[in-house]
Amino acid sequence: MKKKKIWAGLSLCLALIASGCGNNNAAVNNTDKGTNTGSAAETKSYKIAISQYVEHPALDATRAGILDALKDAGIVEGENLTVNFENAQADATNNLSIAQKIAADDNDLVLAIATPSAQAVVQSMKNDTPILFAAVTDPLDAKLITDLEHPGGNVSGASDTNPEAIIRLMDYIAANFPKVKKLGLIINEGEANAVIMADQAEKALDKHGIELVKAAITNTSEVKQAAESLVGRADALYITLDNTVVSGVDTIIQTANDNKIPFFASDRDTVEKGAFATVGFKYYDHGYQVGQMAVEVLKNGKKIGDLKVTMQEKLDLILNLKAAAAQGIEVTDAMKADVADQTNNIIQ
Questions:
Q1: Ranges of H-type helices in 180-332
Q2: How many Cα atoms are found within 13 Å in the side-chain-facing hemisphere of 139?
Q3: Residue-wise pLDDT tens digits, 89-130
Q4: Looking at residue 21, what is its pLDDT?
């Protein structure tokens, strides 16, 4: 009897243990499934390529804004994001080579910063990899897309200009600098975006009887000589969103300061660096806006051709008072009155 009871007890224990193990395994399996599902979502990785025509404050700020927008959406470089950043150093041959290299690679998204980079990438890409452009003046003229509202295909992005900004700046010059009869422009006419903006500025200046005097360059090393050539021929200096020229802007600032010539730019970053005034916005915000579009494509599955091309709408006059002093400009209260956000857009 005792042996029978012992064996019965052992059998019961083994059954309970087996049952318990089975439940634990089921629990572990269920937990693993839940963990694996969550982990797959959390650890999904992305690979993007960034082609930037040249490194200068405005374009660098654009790139920083893009990456921060991705980071804020949980797509973080070094964690679940691999970034292949290429800089063409304002060299057309490098620019094309970079575009071809990116086109041959496997990326979830390609970002092109500045018009030349965007053109090269779009022309080189033979598949349907999504492409977003930033810091492009006129995406229609650059033949990147054919419709701003409904781009279609695999290309969209954001324009970094608004014709109203150029008109407002030229009007400001005419109203506050009556001695300016000739405005000197340093320009690389090989950049389509620079030519477009120059034409817009010239039309706006014509209404005020002000002549636009051009000093043409082909590379950044010629910027200093071009700026100096305008001394005595122009009453003030101006540059567009010309990547080749902006890359050498330090020499223009020096020339303006040494000769007490007012210097006007087309982007905030150049004003922060030492130009006197612009009508514009922060390029970081521009980049952040493009980064949000990237999130829509990568994380939310939006078709890039369904994302309309955006334009900077919030414009303001931006003044640099230190630059004004260096360039011999007396800034009156009336000149400051045109600045809507004086706390942020009057740089002391």
A1: 192-206, 223-229, 243-246, 249-258, 268-273, 283-298, 321-326
A2: 30
A3: 999 999 999 999 999 999 999 999 999 999 999 999 999 999
A4: 40
**What pLDDT sits at residue 313?**
77
Enclosing H/E stretch for 102: helix 92-104
* pLDDT at 34 exceeding the cut of 90: no
What's the rounded Cα separation, in Å, for the pair 2 and 175? 113
Among residues 48, 65, 66, the alpha carbon closest in space to that of 130 is found at: 48
The 10 Å Cβ neighbour count of residue 121 is: 27
| Strands 316-320 vs 277-280: parallel, antiparallel or unpaired | antiparallel
**Crossing angle for the helix pair 192-206 and 163-176, nearest 10 degrees?**
40
d(CA 73, CA 64): 14
Contact call for residues 112 and 132 (beta carbons, < 8 A): yes
- At position 169, the amino acid (one-letter code) is L
